[in-house]
Design goal:
Blueprint (H helix, E strand, L loop, with lengths): L1 H25 L2 H7 L4 H24 L7 H23 L2 H8 L3 H12 L5 H19 L10 H25 L5 H22 L9 H25 L4 H7 L2 H14 L5 H21 L3 H4 L1
Helix pairs in contact: 1-10, 2-10, 3-4, 3-9, 3-10, 4-5, 4-8, 4-9, 5-7, 5-8, 5-12, 6-8, 6-11, 7-13, 9-10
Length: 299
C-alpha cells in the first residue's frame, strides 16, 4: 500500500510540475498579444493557425495521427475562441496584470461546475485555498491605483471577467475529454474548431487581419509556439489532476504576466498588487496540500 501511495504521489507531483510549466509559459501570452500589431481576435486566429501544424506532427507521434474529431474537443475549441476574443480585447484596454488576473478567476466557476456536473466535491480546505487565491488575485486587480494603464480599464476588466467564464468551460471540457483522448489530439481539434470562429469574429469586428510588421508576425508565431508548449502542457496535466485543482494552480499566470508587464511596458507592480500575488501563490500551495491523495485513498 505504501508503494502504491508513493507512486501516485510521484505521478501527482509530475503532473503538477508540468501544469506549473504550462501556466508560466502561458503567462507570456499577453506580452506577445501586445507586441502583435493586428486586431485582438485576429491575433487569436494567427496564434491557433501557427500552432496547428506543430500539433498535427505531435499527434502523429503520440496518438498515431489526429483521428476523428472528438465532440468535446470541438466544444473546447468554441469555448477557447470566446476566451481568446474576450481576453485579447481585455489586454487591449487594461493592464497586462489586470487582464491576466481577472481572466484567471476561474477557480470559483470551475469548482462549482465540477461539483455539480462531475460530482467532484471539494474539501473544505480546498474551498479555503480557492478563497485565498481569488482574494489575492482581487488585490492585484484593485491595487493598481488611480493611474491605471490602458485605454479603457473598466471595459478591459469587464472583457477579462467574461473571458474567465469561457476559460472555465474550456478547462472542464478539456478535463472531461482527457479521460478518453490524448492531449495533443484534443489540442489539434480544439484549434481546428476555434480558428474559423476567431477569423469570423475578426472580420465582423473589422479588425486588421494581418500584422503590419515583421515583429508583429514574429509575435504571432511566438504565440503559436507558446500555445503548443503551454496549453499542451496544461491539457496533459488535466488528464492527471482534478479540474478544480488545476484551475487554482494556473493562477501563477498573472504573477508571470505582471512581472513581465512591469519589465517591458513599465506597468509598475505596486505594494498592494505584490501582496496580492503572494497571497494568490499561498492559495496555490494550500490547494495542493488539500488535493494530495491520502494513503487511505491510494490504498
Amino acid at each position: 500500500m505504501t508503494e502504491v501511495a508513493a507512486t501516485m504521489d510521484r505521478g501527482h507531483l509530475k503532473a503538477l510540475a508540468v501544469l506549473v510549466f504550462g501556466a508560466a509559459v502561458i503567462g507570456l501570452a499577453p506580452i506577445l498579444v501586445r507586441l502583435a500589431d493586428a486586431g485582438p481576435a485576429a491575433v487569436g486566429f494567427w496564434r491557433v493557425t501557427f500552432a496547428l501544424p506543430l500539433l498535427a506532427m505531435m499527434a502523429q507521434k503520440t496518438d498515431g495521427g489526429v483521428g476523428a474529431a472528438p465532440r468535446l474537443a470541438l466544444l473546447a475549441g468554441a469555448a477557447f475562441a470566446l476566451d481568446l476574443s474576450f481576453w485579447h480585447y481585455g489586454i487591449a484596454f487594461t493592464s497586462v496584470a489586470n487582464a491576466t488576473v481577472l481572466t484567471n478567476l476561474t477557480p470559483v466557476v470551475v469548482t462549482a461546475m465540477a461539483w455539480v456536473v462531475f460530482k467532484q466535491r471539494p474539501r473544505n480546505l480546498f474551498v479555503a485555498a480557492v478563497a485565498l487565491a481569488v482574494g489575492g488575485a482581487w488585490l492585484m486587480a484593485v491595487g493598481r491605483g488611480v493611474h491605471a494603464p490602458g485605454g479603457n480599464p473598466p471595459l478591459g476588466d469587464a472583457f477579462s471577467l467574461m473571458a474567465a467564464v469561457w476559460y472555465a468551460l474550456y478547462f472542464l471540457t478539456i478535463s472531461a475529454a482527457r479521460r478518453t483522448v490524448g492531449a495533443t489530439r484534443i489540442m489539434f481539434w480544439s484549434g481546428v474548431a476555434s480558428a474559423p470562429l476567431l477569423l469570423l469574429a475578426a472580420v465582423l469586428l473589422r479588425e486588421d487581419l494581418m500584422p503590419r510588421s515583421a515583429g508583429g508576425w514574429a509575435a504571432c508565431a511566438g504565440l503559436g509556439l507558446m500555445h503548443v508548449a503551454g496549453q499542451g502542457s496544461i491539457a496533459w496535466a488535466l488528464g492527471r489532476l482534478p479540474a478544480a485543482t488545476a484551475s487554482v494552480v494556473v493562477l501563477v499566470q498573472p504573477v508571470v504576466a505582471a512581472i513581465l508587464g512591469w519589465m517591458l511596458f513599465a506597468e509598475a507592480l505596486g505594494p498592494v498588487q505584490a501582496l496580492g500575488a503572494g497571497i494568490a501563490l499561498a492559495g496555490v500551495v494550500l490547494a495542493q496540500m488539500a488535493s494530495r491523495p491520502t494513503a487511505a485513498a491510494a490504498a
